[in-house]
């Protein structure tokens, strides 16, 4: 009978990875569906940020902090969606939208749909985005975003 002794170093590495599964994982993409509305030319991505906005309302996050969160998450959406764009794209715009809710329906006991709010746009040169100018895709959550990422608020957040 042959008895095999596990490689101690390999076992230790496996335990460290198992104890911290996010340590080697790529940054997670924010919640919400992303639609590639136009993959080439002036490319357009539409991100449904309803989950983020619901958390902002529930936490009563101030507008400046909420805006910064949505801008950072829009850059993560951009980074995770670049592979879906055509090589001939010249610019990429991420349109940040969310579903507005209305009064609670007495029949169903849940909030009614009150339309879609276009909250913001994030626009960038496709060349800068795909070349990872200034290593923008690897920036930490507190690092300032590059100035060439043009983020503009065009709508309003719900009342809190």
Count helical runs. Answer: 4
Identify the strand order in the major beta sheet.
Answer: 1-2-3-4-5
Following the backbone from N to C, one meets helices and strands in this order, namely HEEHHEEHE
Structural class: alpha+beta
The overall pLDDT, averaged over residues, is: 84
- Report how far the terminal alpha carbons are from each other: 70 Å
Q: What oligomeric state is this?
A: single chain
Helix % is 25-40%
Could you please describe the fold and organization of this structure?
- The chain has helices at 8-19, 50-58, 63-81, 126-130; strands spanning 34-38, 42-48, 91-104, 111-125, 150-153.
- It is globular and about 50 Å long.
- The chain is of the alpha+beta class and 160 residues long.
- The protein starts with 7 loop residues before the first helix and ends in a 7-residue tail after the last strand.
- A 5-stranded mixed beta sheet has the order 1-2-3-4-5.
- The longest helix has 19 residues, at 63-81.
Relevant terms:
single chain, 160 residues, alpha+beta, 5-stranded mixed sheet, 5 strands, 28% helix, globular, disordered N terminus
Question: What's the quick description here?
Answer:
The protein is an alpha+beta fold and 160 residues long. The chain contains four helices and five strands.
